[in-house]
Amino acid sequence: MNKNLIAPCGMNCGICSGYLREKNKCSGCNAGPTLPSCQRCRLKLCDQRKGDFCDCQKLPCQRLKQLDKRYRDKYGMSMLENLEFIRKNGIDKFLKHEEKRWVSKKGVFCVHNKKYY
Predict the structure, then answer these.
(1) Cα–Cα distance between 44 and 95 in angstroms, integer?
(2) Is the peptide bond before 60 cis (omega within 30 degrees of 0)?
(3) Quick one: pLDDT at residue 33?
């Protein structure tokens, strides 16, 4: 887990199936070649953001609310909780928290397909 794998929306790309898979691998939102869907992500391209993570006056905006709801319902995680944790505790503590949550002796647990890599 490293800072470059945390997307502006709060997603940990290190637990994403696009990042973990072998073929057509994504590098993560902030780390180089990304998937086409990530390249056109409006949250990533948002001109209201001033720092590395969503932090504008509209936080949470409608797009982020929709993304967060989908991830809460489908995958049991929250981008808004991630952003709040980062805001309160800093990125280093967040990375340690994520490692404890998603990494075990079996490998990295993928939030999308529920497999270890």
Answers:
(1) 20
(2) yes
(3) 62
Average pLDDT over residues 91-109: 97
SS3 state of residue 67:
helix
The label of the residue with tokens 């609310």 reads 65
Per-residue model confidence as pLDDT tens digits over 35-67: 777 777 788 888 888 888 988 788 898 989 999
DSSP conformation class of 44? T
Number of helices and strands in the chain (H, E): 5, 2
CA distances, 17 to each of 21, 55, 85, 112 (Å): 6, 26, 23, 6
Domain ranges in the chain are 3-108
In sign, the C-alpha dihedral spanning 53, 55, 61, 66 is positive
